[in-house]
Amino acid sequence: MATKVLMVAEKPSIALSIATALSGGRMSSRRGSTEVHEFDGTFLGYRVQYKVTSVIGHVFSVDFPPKYQDWAATDPLTLFEAPVVKSESNPKAHIRQHLNREARGCGDLVLWLDCDREGENICFEVIECTGFQANDGRRVHRARFSSVTEKDITHAMKNLVQPNKDESLLISHYSNNQLEIRFAELLQTH
């Protein structure tokens, strides 16, 4: 039985372009929360079964809990102590469950998210959803690409890198800053 490799792109159209380029157009597709394209190929010298799917932007968002959402009824001072909660950005899409299900049985994860800090942050959201961990024997790779041409996709596959946790943390910090900005706006209205 061939090893399985899960590839996750930032959006469905990119997943389709990646699968088409790497399979030569010889793939099967099935529905999930987002489409999954499957084909056989070679990865790091081994015969593998590829599964290519996508997220639809960020998997998670951060906000104050529901009891703090009504700005008119919220004492601004309570926000200093209010927890920040992480939740699915689009719970009806079931992306978290989709990624977890597709990752089962996969030995490698290849992340095809945009090559900017937001994309790097989404990489770590995907890693969390798939359950891949540094010490479980499975490997995580990051594809760096500037377009979805066959040439760029092939080049990215030959030059995989590790995702950058430091860049991801910058975006996580930025998200928390956005909550602080909302808090400052609230203070100005009271």
UniProtKB/TrEMBL annotation:
This is DNA topoisomerase. Introduces a single-strand break via transesterification at a target site in duplex DNA. Releases the supercoiling and torsional tension of DNA introduced during the DNA replication and transcription by transiently cleaving and rejoining one strand of the DNA duplex. The scissile phosphodiester is attacked by the catalytic tyrosine of the enzyme, resulting in the formation of a DNA-(5'-phosphotyrosyl)-enzyme intermediate and the expulsion of a 3'-OH DNA strand. InterPro entries: Topo_IA, Topo_IA_core_domain, TOPRIM_dom, TOPRIM_TopoIII. It catalyses: ATP-independent breakage of single-stranded DNA, followed by passage and rejoining. One of its GO terms (molecular function) is DNA topoisomerase type I (single strand cut, ATP-independent) activity. It comes from the Eukaryota. One of its GO terms (biological process) is DNA recombination. Residues 4-148 form the Toprim domain. Its EC number is 5.6.2.1. Pfam families: Toprim. The keyword Isomerase applies. Belongs to the type IA topoisomerase family.
